[in-house]
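Researcher: We're teaching a course module on how sequence relates to structure. For the next exercise, students receive a sequence and then see the predicted structure as tokens, so they can try to spot secondary structure elements on their own. Here is the exercise chain.
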Amino acid sequence: MKPLKRNPIAAFTLIEIMLVIIIVVALMAVLIPNLKNALTDSKNGTAEMYITRLAGNLSMYELKNGSPPSTEQGLKALMEMPASEPRPRRWSKIEDKIELDPWGMEYRYEFPGRRNPKSFDVYSCGPDRQANTEDDLWNK
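Model: And here is the predicted structure for the students to work with:
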């Protein structure tokens, strides 16, 4: 009896295919949480930078006009001259547009601030989109 000749173009075995699938699944199990954390860190960093920018622009507004805008005037006072009291002495447009935070919510503004009672607070409600929770991001 003649021995069977193997085909030189052999296919992958089931074990080889399963091994590759296991490796791919293991890599995904490690990478997906890291990508999610990186995305969260990126959003937090973006919000913190924009809050710092708004706080700087509000400080410039205060230097020009003697006081920051009232809570009612809000961040809009950086784009449009407030019609209510306290009226600014030397108003000029500082911002063209106030962006939304990375979670699609408006940044919050309070004067006097709860965290900075002698100044103002600018903050984002953070990922949960709820004010006054642990994940809020505040100006320093």
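Model: If you want an answer key for the exercise: The chain has a mean pLDDT of 89. The chain has one helix and three strands.
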